[in-house]
Amino acid sequence: MKQTISLLARLIDTLAPRSCTVCGGRLTVTEEVMCACCNHSLPRTGYAKSGYDNRLVRLFWGRIPIEKGAAFFFYKAHSDTSRLIYQLKYGGHPELGEGLGRIVAAEFAHDGFFEGITAVVPVPLARQRERERGYNQSVEIARGISAETGLPVLDKVLERISFHGSQTQKGRWERNENVEKAFRLLDASALNNQHILLVDDVITSGATLVAAAKEVLKGENVKVSVLSLGFANNE
């Protein structure tokens, strides 16, 4: 059976070859999202090994009670690796989110990052933005994490009620004001006694996740951790 699947995969790959999202080179049958070379050179943060105390987690200290947090790689706009985020968000490739979610989850699981976490909540998009894009990239990432870890995805407990443009060109204080009351909790009971992992694509100032976490924490006895693909390293 495995041999049949392997032969079928090779046939499909021959007829419709896939390319590396980072360098554009052809992927082998066993490679997903990016080639082995680009995967090896990805600027990983290593934060999953010290999930309770790292530069990303410190962004949230004094703002929300956070358990732990990690990002997959350091994000820099217009770099080769930034194509992972650009293609996921703007290139119409939701499958990249699930693929990256699987990769991240497999690596982070080795460090015990998911221990104690009971459910995954993707950061919601505004309805207009999701209609334009056709999907929510954070939901796709969460699905990949769920497929690898078995954790349930709770994508109906939180909604985004306002959107005032991209965060990209805004300063830290503008980001805070832009998303301060952007989310609304829909189902607090689904979060009661849970350790929630909030998932987003990129963390810069942390403002979006702070606003989302404040709503999630309205549930009873809720703990919050965070995970993102990219961390915009400004130092």
Automatic annotation (TrEMBL):
Coiled-coil features, chain-numbered ranges: none
Domain named Phosphoribosyltransferase: residues: 117-223
Cross-referenced InterPro entries: ComF/GntX_DNA_util-trans (IPR051910), PRTase-like (IPR029057), PRTase_dom (IPR000836)
Any Pfam family: Pribosyltran
Superkingdom of this protein's organism: Bacteria
CDD domains for this protein: PRTases_typeI
PANTHER family recorded: DNA UTILIZATION PROTEIN YHGH
Protein family per UniProt: Belongs to the ComF/GntX family.
Name of protein: ComF family protein
